[in-house]
Specification:
The protein is of the alpha+beta class. Helices cover about 25% and strands about 35% of the residues. Strands 1, 2, 3, 4, 7, 8, 11, 12 and 13 form a 9-stranded antiparallel beta sheet that branches.
Length: about 200
């Protein structure tokens, strides 16, 4: 795969992530999300990214900027995949902060443009297991302002994945409501990812 093909695939991936984030922001449950389904499948495919297939535990950081300038930052998810760092240059930054306001990690980037005038981003950085308890909030800053995701919002988020296909079956923004009936009836083949940050324990 040449460099241009790799770039186009990455921009398309960011666009799909932002589309899912925008849809999820207005609903408690996004069921059978085919757009999000392709995200993790591509993350695990070496051919999709044109990168080595070595996997490790990574933290997926994703969100975007709506056409009206509203910043969108979604709860993060830790899973087995490949590291995809941003370029390190740009006017946007996501930081992970602990309870004292100290920076656990920080990335700078330029979001990918989407046809409707909005922007999207998705990166996977090496995950430190200590962040499961230490991470207190995520913060996205850019020319439009600042937005955050706290432990309460992160704890409510859940991503439900089909183990066999890697497809995302549901994105829940309020996991306390439990799995939809059609998934709860046969949950043995499902993998549940809990959002971050979340309360310790």
């Amino acid at each position: 795969m040449n460099g241009l093909e790799t770039l186009l695939r990455r921009v398309a991936l960011r666009a799909r992530l932002h589309a899912v984030a925008a849809a999820a922001a207005s609903t408690v449950l996004l069921a059978a999300a085919p757009l999000a389904g392709g995200i993790l499948a591509q993350e695990r495919s070496p051919e999709a990214a044109g990168e080595p297939s070595q996997e490790s535990t990574v933290l997926m950081i994703w969100g975007g900027v709506r056409a009206d300038g509203e910043l969108v930052l979604e709860p993060a998810f830790a899973y087995e995949g490949r590291v995809r760092h941003p370029g390190g240059v740009g006017d946007y930054r996501v930081r992970g902060l602990d309870g004292e306001g100290e920076t656990l990690f920080s990335i700078r980037f330029t979001p990918g443009e989407i046809s409707d005038g909005s922007k999207g981003f998705s990166y996977s950085i090496p995950f430190d297991p200590a962040w499961t308890e230490a991470l207190d909030r995520l913060e996205l800053s850019g020319p439009e302002g600042v937005t955050t995701v706290d432990r309460e919002a992160g704890a409510r988020a859940m991503m439900v994945i089909d183990r066999a296909s890697g497809q995302v079956r549901s994105l829940l923004r309020d996991a306390a409501a439990g799995l939809p009936a059609e998934l709860a009836a046969d949950s043995s083949g499902l993998r549940i990812l809990r959002g971050l940050p979340r309360p310790p324990g």
